[in-house]
Write a structure and sequence with these properties.
Elements (H helix, E strand, L loop, with lengths): L4 H13 L14 H4 L5 H20 L18 H7 L5 H4 L4 H10 L25 H16 L6 E5 L2 E5 L5 H6 L1 H10 L4 E4 L16
Parallel strand pairs: 2-3
Antiparallel strand pairs: 1-2
Helix pairs in contact: 3-4, 7-9
């Protein structure tokens, strides 16, 4: 079986930085509260991850650290609470780092990940109340992978049942229209019947706007 691209990237980065790493199996989809995709979905996801990581960290005499930064504190992210309840720490927050500061520091260190686009979990593409299933996540993953092959690195495909709403940075809206037929083809190939382009552009976490926080 061919190795997944993300696996290859992780192996290469670990080798470059002198780190060891391994995958950890989680079972959030076994949790009906996670699958229901309520406003606290992220809490149940991080709860499952924390439970899986605790024995590994304990055996290594280590502390679980998350890459949360100061900018993340202004959004609805209940998963941070779950992580803290299990003893995780946020070193970048403690150091007062914003996303921009993280990227600047990464560039100064010569890290090739300095400009890597943000990669939120696929479930974040689903409006709250839309059940999370492997089938739906695969549709989103396939649609986004197809668009990346067309050259769109920073994007989101928001899942609205049979409709896919594409978000790219405002400066790339014209590029989507220039490749309209190819864009429609790859998104429909993922299982969507209708394809739309969001004229407000890429906005991380914008589905949280529906919440009464």
């Amino acid at each position: 079986m061919a190795q997944h691209k993300d696996q290859i990237d992780q192996d290469a980065l670990a080798a470059e930085w002198g780190l060891t790493w391994s995958t950890v199996a989680t079972h959030e989809l076994d949790d009906p509260e996670y699958r229901a995709n309520g406003a606290d979905r992220c809490y149940h996801c991080k709860e499952a991850l924390s439970v899986a990581l605790e024995p590994i960290a304990e055996a290594a005499g280590a502390t679980v650290a998350l890459g949360v930064n100061v900018d993340d504190l202004g959004d609805h992210r209940p998963g941070q609470r779950a992580a803290m309840e299990h003893g995780a720490v946020f070193p970048l927050v403690e150091a007062g780092f914003t996303k921009a500061m993280v990227r600047d520091a990464s560039r100064s260190l010569g890290l090739r990940t300095a400009d890597k686009p943000a990669a939120a979990c696929l479930a974040s593409r689903l409006p709250y109340g839309t059940p999370v299933t492997l089938g739906v996540l695969r549709e989103v993953e396939m649609a986004e992978a197809g668009l990346r092959r067309l050259g769109f690195d920073e994007l989101r495909v928001r899942h609205h049942r049979d409709l896919a709403r594409i978000e790219v940075p405002l400066g790339r809206l014209g590029d989507v229209l220039a490749q309209r037929e190819a864009v429609v083809d790859v998104v429909r190939a993922a299982g969507y019947r209708s394809v739309t382009l969001d004229l407000e552009g890429f906005r991380s976490g914008n589905l949280n706007e529906a919440l009464d926080l």
